[in-house]
Fold this sequence. Notes:
Blueprint: E1 2-7, H1 17-30, E2 34-38, H2 56-59, E3 63-65, H3 69-76, E4 81-85, H4 90-102, E5 106-109, H5 116-120, H6 123-139, E6 143-146, H7 149-157, E7 164-166, E8 174-177, E9 180-184, E10 213-218, H8 227-237, E11 242-247, H9 254-264, E12 271-274, H10 279-288, E13 291-294, H11 303-310, E14 315-318, H12 325-328, E15 332-335, H13 339-349, H14 354-371, H15 374-389
Parallel strand pairs: 1-2, 1-4, 2-3, 4-5, 5-6, 6-7, 10-11, 10-13, 11-12, 13-14, 14-15
Antiparallel strand pairs: 8-9
Amino acid sequence: MRIIHTLASLDPATGGPARSVPQLALAQSGLGHEVGLWAPGMDHGAGTWRVADLASDAVERMQLLPGEFEQALDSFGRPDLVHDHGIWLPCHRQVAKACAARGIPRIASPRGMLEPWALNHKKWKKRAAWWLYQKRDLQAAAGLHATADSEARQLRRLGLKAPMVVAANGVTVPILESGFLTRFDSQEAGCEAGGLPNGFGFEEAGCKPALHRTALFLSRIHPKKGLPMLVEAWARVRPEGWSMRVVGPDEGGHRGEVERLVAGAGLTDCWSFANSLEGDDKWRAMAAADLFVLPTHSENFGIVVAESLACGVPVITTTAAPWQGLRDHGCGWWVEPDAAALGAALDEATRVEASGLREMGRSGREWMAADFGWEGIARKMEAFYQEVAG
């Protein structure tokens, strides 16, 4: 098949699709499909584009399409199908209109943007957009893609009736030696062992202070992610010998709000903040953590959960993310999105011996390798594409 994937941005600071969509495209290329990738504003003059977590030779296995979407269609040639990831933004309207005008089947992936919390964030703007164009564009799609059963149920509640596939995001499971990441085991470039990024808080990879353990949050610093709730939970527990690392891009000044809450709770000695980490630095930071925490109010998937488990790190997240399997596979805690429940999970997790956390992490890695490989997900999407494209 000839497939074009479209998304709002390839900048990893914008969230999970900038990581997962190129990985899906690459996996489909590996199955023998001709795959293009388009996002608005890509600059072809630079020679190559930076794609999160992919080496340049992997990027070359797909066509990165510059210009407006109509120009991308002209340069790629008529595709059998366009898979658009995201809603609301002008680029998604552009894709919907161009596909309708040219009679090209379009798959729409809302990517969690229609979950209840997301709809209530800036709800008046979204309500107007829903009735002006967004519902109509989704109803006109040849198919819908949800990344979890909970998202699929929400799309049906909103009255969307197109054929639908539920397919999770995948994850690349890195190779670990002596508990620390050294290189990747599939589509990505080699990752040499070495020091963690400057300022992250460890002096050497694989050298954690014996009496000090670290919990990690690595995601966008956005109100949706629940960091104020985590501050309150941590203040209740105050786990001895643990620190909390918050890593990610600031959105709308929210980092400053969280830092003020940390100071007000008297946690500045055990909480720290750092800017985004990408590529090898991100994977090493995940592998070096003892525990990962995503205290979210809303996720359609939560790719950082999968990445942390792939690095052998157990996870605490909330029931607002589709990760009940953390309980089923014995690799983490899945609790209500409130400070009391988070605090109870933190209290339990930080009392577990290091060997116990490592064993939970091993269970998580095995689960990711078994159920979240990109090839299997690409084949599932391939079958759905063939169904809706006729």
